[in-house]
Amino acid sequence: MNFPVRWINVPTADGGRGNPMNGTMMSGVVTCAMYGQGKRLADVPFEHCAKQDCAEGQFLWISLYEPEEELLRIAQQHFGLHDLAIEDAHNAHQRPKVELYGDSLFMVLRTAQLRDEEIAYGETHIFAGKGYLISVRHGGSLTYTDARKRLELKPELLQLGEQAALHAILDYVADNFFPVIDEIARELTEIESHVLDATLDRAVIARIYHLRQQLLGMRNAVSPLLEVCSKLERLQCPVLTPAIQPYIRDVHDHVMHVAEAIDSLRAGLAAAFETEMLLASSRQNDIVRQLAAWAAILAVPTAIAGIYGMNFDHMPELKWEWGYFAVLGTIGTVCSFLFWKFKRTGWL
Questions:
Q1: What is 291-323 written as a DSSP string?
Q2: What is the pTM of this model?
C-alpha cells in the first residue's frame, strides 16, 4: 500500500532553482562537470554538453533539480534518452525501479530526510550511459554535492567512470536513511523509558501511531530499493562492469541494514503500545477489584440497616437495651474481617 508523499522543496546547491553558467541562467541545472583520469577536469555549460567529446575514461556528470520538460527534451536530444524514461523523469511519483533502454540505464530511487519531525520523501531519476550520468531530483531530496565530494576523494574509484558516479548516488541515498532511523530510534527509547513509569497520555500514544505510519512509509520506500540493488547485481549492460559489483553489494548491505532497522523499530513501537495497553488493562482491573471489595464491605451495613429499617413491631432485639451496640459491633466485626480478607488477597 502506498501512502501519500509530502513533497518539500529544498534549495539547490547554488541556493536557488538555477545555476549561472557562461553568463546565462539555465533553470533546473545544478551542476554539469567533466570527469576523467580519476578527477574532476572542468565544469561544462549544460548547453555545450552535446559538443563535448568524451575521451576514453571520461564522462559528464549532470545534476538537475525539478527541471522543466523542455530541459529534459534537450538532454534527450543530446544523449539519445528514451521517451518513456523522459516521461517518468518529468512526472515523478514513480516506484523505485531499474530499466534498460538499449545501452542506456534508467533508474528511479526514493529518498527521505527528516524535516520538522516529519519524513519528507523525494525522488531521484538517473540516466546512465557511455560517457554520461544525469541525475534528476524531485521533492525532498538533498543535493548530491556531498556525494560528488566523497567520490572525488577516491580517484581509484572515480576512474571506473559513470558507473562510479551511479554508485556514489546510490550509496548516498542509502546512507541518508540512517539519520531518519536514528531519530526515530531516539524517540522510541524516550517512549520506552516512560512506559513502565507512568501512564502515557493521549499525545504520546498518538505519536507512537504516527511514528509507526512513518516507518511504514519508509518501508515502502526502502523495500523496492532492495530490488533495485539486486537487479543491478544481476543486470548485464555496458554501464556496469564486474569492477563495480562489490560496491553495489555493499550498498545492498546498507539498504538491508536500513530495512532490518525499520522492522525492528516497528516491532519496538508495537511492543511499547501493547505494553501500555496491557498496563492500562491491569490498572483498570485493579480498580475494578478495589471497587468490588469495597462494595462487598459496604453491603454488610447496608443489608443490616435495611433489615432493621423495616419497622415491624415484633422484630428480634428491637426492645433490647444493648441491641443497637450489638448491631454496630456485628457490622464492625464483619466489615473488618472482609477488609482483612480482601487485603490479604491483594484486592485492596
A1: HHHHHHHHHHHHHHHHHHTT--TT-TTSS-TTH
A2: 0.71
Name, in order, each residue with C-beta under 8 angstroms of 221's C-beta and a sequence gap of 6 or more. 96, 110, 111, 112, 121
* 300 and 331 Cβ atoms separated by less than 8 Å: yes
Whole-angstrom CA distances from 69 to 113, 126, 236 are: 26, 16, 30
Residue 21 is given by DSSP the state: E
CB 181 within 8 A of CB 269: no
Q: How far apart are CA 72 and CA 66, in angstroms?
A: 10
Q: CA–CA separation, 338 vs 192, rounded Å?
A: 39
Q: What are the chain's domains?
A: 18-278 (3.30.460.20), 286-345 (1.20.58)
pLDDT in tens, the chain (348 residues): 333 333 333 333 333 333 333 334 456 778 888 898 888 888 888 776 655 566 677 888 988 888 888 888 888 888 888 888 888 888 777 788 888 888 889 999 888 887 776 788 888 999 998 889 999 988 877 788 889 899 999 999 998 989 999 999 999 999 888 888 888 888 888 877 777 666 666 777 788 888 888 888 888 888 888 888 888 888 888 888 898 999 999 999 999 999 999 888 888 888 877 777 777 777 777 778 788 888 877 887 877 777 777 666 666 666 677 777 777 788 788 888 878 877 777 777
* Lookup: cell for 117: 519531525
